Amino acid sequence: MQLAVNILVLASIYALICCGYVLIYKVSRVLSLAHGELMMLGAYGLYATASLFSGHPLVALAAAAALALAVGVAVYAALMWRMTGESVLAAVLATIALGILLRGAMILMFGTQTQYPLRDLGWTNASLDLGAARISAVGLTLILSTALVYGALAVFLRLTRWGIRMRAAGQYPLLAAQRGIGLHGIYALAWGLATFTAGLAGMLIACDAGLEGTLVIIGLKAFPAALVGGLDSLVGALLGSLVVASAEVLLIHYVDPLLSDVVPFVILLAMLVARPWGLLGTREELDRV
Amino acid sequence: MSGYYRTRYAEDFALLDTATKKAWLAFLLVSLFIYPFLAGPLALDLANQILLGSIGAVALMLLTGYAGQISLGHAGLLAAGAFTTGILFKELGAGIWVTLPASAAVGAALGLVFGLPSLRLRGLYLAVSTLALHFIVTFAGGEYETRRGYSTGIIIDSPISDPRAWYLVLLAAAAATLLFGSNLLRARTGRAWRAIHGREAVAEALGVSVHRAKLSAFVVSSTLTALAGCLFAYYRGFVSAEAFSLYLTIQYVAMIIIGGMGSLLGAVLGTIFVVLFPYAIDIAMSALGLAERLSSVVFAVNYSAFGLVMIAFLVFEPQGLVGLWRRLQSWFLLWPFKQRPLA
């Protein structure tokens, strides 16, 4: 039972991170390898706002979330729009460069000490008893916010005008642009939303386990989950997260805790060999003669 | 009749076509041979690092710059070569004549296995499978270290200890790699790589076997990289999983971006830039009087400066240092004109 709870918490962490990878890939076919760093930046945002608005934890949270959204749009406006229409390789390399820049800048600004934003907010991470298992309050918040984010994204992409435009831009950018959809606006929105969700994940993880450099590794480990589910499918991301998280938790529990860093990548490799487009992703056609 | 005309196909294929180029190459070779006798210990170490790095950079350039296959597993492949060397040395007491071919074999095998997904995948997915390679290889290496009790790393006795001797060995290795690369690129294999980089469907229509070209690019690149890893292990005299972080991969990727995609000269220039960069930062920091204050976070300064430089090259000069060099060349050649005059 405790294992099931652990799986659920880890799966929602992965799912919350994944939806950023999926959003950016689905809309602009760019793989953001700076996602882990953006996640950490979101967490540091919370750390900064927590001391700025001390005594008003909810204000601090809202400010940090808004900050994450703004950072995402700024990343697009400052860097990624120049990569629109460039080769996939150039865009991916730009995100790698951005990641390393952010990592250095964050260490310079905030140091290497482990921070505890939850304590700065004035809250404690209570342990809740569910009968057969225990879950931390932050863990529960993680599950709830993942559900909320996925629900909101589903409604947004299906029903709202901007969501439909976003899907159109992802499906056929040229046609979408000719029908009057401003691609730059759409892409900026995708980056904003992706960074927002990444920041949210970063904040929650930092609240649970402290804010330190390993956050970037978690961001990278979530990536196999996105790929297992299919890089352009949000439902797939949920499914993939569940698969990767269960494999990881079970193997750590029954085999060896040291495996935690490789398990996602082994699953990823197996998936790439068997079904490269993921469980629910769209099959990308290779050109054949 | 003035000008330079090629009248035979062999002239088209020649690596060095004009007498000026031959003279320059001779000059370069002579100065490279004189260098170790003039340079101090630090300058010699830097030169060795550059030579060592350029083997890996050329290997990555062949794969990414020419064949157009993204790889993020370069540090993993270096680690594979280094650990093969370390493990054979520790377990069997093997010498360099065993470890070198063994590393090459391991590299080739890994290249084959991790190149296989490339047959069904395009660009991004491939980057991901090579990333998986990185994590799996470094994990396996780390496991070996902890299981066998070398928790701080494997120490290897090197057959060569004199830095000057190392310089000559590495120079020979780097020159051989460059020669091998440029020979391969003007042969059928290299042309096939460039063709699949351009457009796979067209290449296939022209009779290029896309599968074979992709796999050969992976195998050649990872074999060379594993060899570089083996040399790295001997040069450092020390192998540890921590040395092969993702940052190392990023450094190699930076070498080919900064040097200029699709050029072997670019790979070498990029290596020089990336190896010297931290030292330049160090000098700049002492000049600005920041060295004291930032001494504990030097690596962070390096990271951010590195990221900035990579972004600057990607945005403003995607052709890299080679692009700058070519622009400079044509500026002088065409002066006072800006572009080639018509007719």
Topology of this protein?
The complex is a heterodimer of chains A (289) and B (343).
Chain A: H1 2-28, H2 35-52, H3 57-78, H4 88-110, H5 117-121, E1 127-129, E2 134-136, H6 137-159, H7 161-171, H8 173-178, H9 183-209, H10 214-229, H11 234-254, H12 263-274
Antiparallel strand pairs in A: 1-2
Chain B: H1 9-13, H2 19-38, H3 41-66, H4 74-92, H5 96-115, H6 123-147, E1 154-155, H7 163-186, H8 188-198, H9 200-205, H10 210-236, E2 238-239, H11 246-259, H12 264-288, H13 298-316, H14 320-334
Antiparallel strand pairs in B: 1-2
Helix pairs in contact in B: 2-7, 3-7, 3-10, 3-11, 3-12, 4-5, 4-6, 4-10, 5-10, 7-8, 8-10, 11-12, 11-14, 12-13
Which CATH architecture of chain B? Orthogonal Bundle
Number of domains of chain A: 1
CA-CA gap between termini of chain B? 17 Å
The biggest beta sheet of chain A, please?
2 strands, antiparallel
- Percent of residues in β-strands of chain A: under 5%
| Distance separating the two termini of chain A | 53 Å
Return the structural class of chain B. Answer: mainly alpha
Q: Helix-strand pattern of chain B, N to C?
A: HHHHHHEHHHHEHHHH
How many E strands of chain A? 2
Mean pLDDT of chain A: 86
Characterize the biggest β-sheet of chain B.
2 strands, antiparallel
CATH fold descriptor of chain B: ABC transporter involved in vitamin B12 uptake, BtuC
Strand runs of chain B, count = 2
Average pLDDT value of chain B?
88
Number of domains of chain B: 1
> Largest interface, counted with CB-CB under 8 A?
A-B, 46 and 48 residues
Secondary-structure element order of chain A, N to C: HHHHHEEHHHHHHH
Tell me the number of helical segments of chain A per DSSP (H or I, 4 or more residues long): 12
Described by the principal axes of the CA atoms, the overall outline of chain B is: globular
Roughly how much helix do the residues of chain A carry, as a percent range?
Answer: over 70%
Structural class of chain A: mainly alpha
